[in-house]
Amino acid sequence: MLREATPEVEALELELLLEALLQRYGYDFRGHERAALRRKLRAVMRQRGLRTLSQLQDRVLHEPGAASSALRALHVPPATLFDDIDEARQLRQLVGASLRGAALPRIWLADCAGAEQAWTLAIILADEGLLEQTEIHATVASDELLAEAQDATITQEQLANYQAGYARSGGQGELSRYFAASGKRLAPTVALRSHITWAQYNLVTDASFNEFNLIVCRRALPDFGPVLRQRVLNLFHGSLAPFGILGLDRAIDAADALAPHYAAMPQPGWCRRIA
């Protein structure tokens, strides 16, 4: 009978699997928290009836479907429209402070959790009268996620279910006014979609590509280890305009070298650049 791997062996298996993902597919998860990686990969193993990470590594190297499943599990889980009511409320309070007065306001959704997270932000901006002059740059980690985001649609039933979250977040009226028929499904109106620019972008390796008035990365950061987290914070700092707002999963540590450059805001995890 096969036995479960010991913690020591599993730790070695995990490092080998991460190296395989990097060498074979170009995705570097070596800077992520190991506990988060194990949790996500064990879920893939259960789905595929595998007992060890070595078995998963074999599938990942030789079966495109297994590789896609593993990479999807390790990337940011997809959001649904207005699924985080607290964040949506906070954004309603903050977008005016970060965007009004800018000649061409730009927002970066870094490691965006899919199309519906970007749609949520665009709808909030439209509600607040700020969408027309604002550019949303939504970046995802893989070409597969990029294609899915660009082609995303929802059903009429999903839209009806999202109405309650929209209202709870402070939205007024019918959410349906922001959607139009796309075959038998629904897609955001052209007026909404035209303000969202999608791109593949790797937070681990890529450099700053623009200056932004608002940067949001609250869903990916919890899985980053301390070295990668610091690398990403420095990247955001170099990409944030003076007095721009940064949305993180938690406040910047007081001992961090970047801390003097930011002032905490009343909303948890949000801060404004002051220097």
UniProtKB/TrEMBL annotation:
<dbReference type="InterPro" id="IPR050903">
    <property type="entry name" value="Bact_Chemotaxis_MeTrfase"/>
</dbReference>
<dbReference type="GO" id="GO:0008757">
    <property type="term" value="F:S-adenosylmethionine-dependent methyltransferase activity"/>
</dbReference>
<feature type="domain" description="CheR-type methyltransferase">
    <location>
        <begin position="2"/>
        <end position="248"/>
    </location>
</feature>
<dbReference type="Pfam" id="PF03705">
    <property type="entry name" value="CheR_N"/>
</dbReference>
<dbReference type="InterPro" id="IPR022641">
    <property type="entry name" value="CheR_N"/>
</dbReference>
<dbReference type="InterPro" id="IPR000780">
    <property type="entry name" value="CheR_MeTrfase"/>
</dbReference>
<dbReference type="InterPro" id="IPR022642">
    <property type="entry name" value="CheR_C"/>
</dbReference>
<dbReference type="Pfam" id="PF01739">
    <property type="entry name" value="CheR"/>
</dbReference>
<dbReference type="InterPro" id="IPR029063">
    <property type="entry name" value="SAM-dependent_MTases_sf"/>
</dbReference>
<protein>
    <submittedName>
        <fullName>Chemotaxis protein</fullName>
    </submittedName>
</protein>
